[in-house]
Each structure stands twice: as C-alpha cells, then as structure tokens.
Amino acid sequence: MDIFTLQARYAKARTRLEERDGWGEQSAAKLFAAIAARRRIALDRFIYALGIRHVGETTARLLARFYGTIDAFLAAMLEAAKGKDADAFKELDAIEGIGEVVAEAIADFFAEPHNVRVVEDLLKEVSPQPLAARDTSSPVAGKTVVFTGTLETLTRSEAKAQAERLGAKVAGSVSKKTDYVVAGADAGSKLSKARELGISIIDEQEWARLTTNRGAG
User: Fold this and answer.
1) Phi and psi at residue 84, to the nearest 5°
2) Is the dihedral of CA 120, 95, 154, 191 positive or negative?
3) Whole-model pTM?
4) How many whole angstroms from its chain centre is CA 3?
5) In what order do the strands lie in the sheet with 169-171?
6) Alpha-carbon distance 103 to 142, whole Å?
7) How large is the C-alpha radius of gyration of the chain?
8) d(CA 111, CA 94)
9) Nearest to residue 123, comparing CAs of 63, 46, 61, 57?
C-alpha cells in the first residue's frame, strides 16, 4: 500500500521527490501518473492480493464473479466471519469451487480486526472494479443456481459454464438464497433440501427453455 501513498508523503516531506538525486519534475510526474493509473484494479486481483490462505487466482475470480462488487464482497465476508451459522458463511461455503476449508480460511481472515483495518486502509487508496459484465438480459442473470443429479444433454462443467455466461451464480449446495435447483436423474439430498426450503425446482428441459428466453422467469 505504501506505493499509493508515495505522492502524499512526498508532498509533506522536506525534500520533494523531484528534488532528489536522479529525479526531476518530469520523471516524478510520470511515476505519480503511473501509480494513479493503477488505483483502479480488477476485483479478482484485489482479492488475490490480500494473501488469504487457500485463495489463489482462480478462487479469487470465483469470489469476484459471485459477489460482483467490493462492497458486496466485504459486507458478506464480515458477516461470514461471525461463524458457521451465519447465512453469509453458508452462502460462501456453497459457492461451486469454494468448499468448507477455503470458506473457513476466508472467514478467519476477516475475523481478524487487523486484517479488516488493512483492507479498509487499502480501499482508501485503490478502487476495485467488477469483472466484465456478462449477459444481463437472460432470465437467470443474477440468480443463484444449483445443479444436481445426472444431466442428459450437458456435463456438469458445461452446465456451470453456460449458467455463468448468462450471468447466473452457480452454487454447490442449496440454501435459502438459491433461486433455482436444476434436477437431473438420481438427484438426492440437494433436491430434498430444495423441497424443504421451497426453492424453485426445474428439470433440464425447463432449464433449456429458461436460458433460451422461451420460458417464464
């Protein structure tokens, strides 16, 4: 973070940067301009740069895609840090590709006040940007979807990729925040959980109609 406060610190220093040996007004201006240009950072890169245990580039991208904005991400993580019974922790754990070990590591990170202060201080210097927008015209854009059972026309990874292309969030388990459960053959506990919670359950054909804008949302 020190690099982003460089200009402000030198503005208060007895010797300004452009007055130091090897520097001049033009070179100092170029440096400060380069730093300013990097204040806008992709949300996934920001999350990755926090150095959270088990959160590599792929996981950071999953989180950035799922939560969308830094405000939503930070609010959810502070809530998740309250414990496994928190709805935000359950939602985090349910994200396809995250899982309990990673969810616990993230929650533990944000449960530490020092880490939260570091993040808040960093956000005074940089502006994390949402990832490139995906299709927002789809009926499933912004919806949380769970796939369960055996699908006939798509593999699980193909179904996940399709849903994400259409702006949906793919979760690995069912929660109160799930919007759709797409149930294939031999669907088990996830289907039961969806029924218990009153989640909308559709089959593969209904999913196909929905995602081609021929079904009702």
Assistant:
1) -65, -20
2) negative
3) 0.62
4) 25
5) 169-171, 144-148, 180-183, 200-202
6) 21
7) 22
8) 19
9) 46
- Euclidean distance between the first and the last CA atom of the chain, given in angstroms as a whole number: 45
CA distances for 169 relative to 69, 75, 147, 161, angstroms? 14, 18, 11, 10
pLDDT digit of tens for each residue in the chain (217 aa)? 455 655 566 556 656 656 666 676 676 667 656 666 667 888 999 999 999 999 999 899 999 989 989 999 999 999 999 999 999 999 999 898 898 999 999 999 999 999 999 999 889 888 899 887 666 788 898 899 999 999 988 888 888 888 988 889 898 889 988 999 999 999 889 999 999 999 999 999 999 998 886 444 4
Distance CA 165, CA 146 (A): 15
Q: Quote the distance between the C-alpha of residue 58 and its chain's center.
A: 11
Look-up of token digits 């006939």: 152
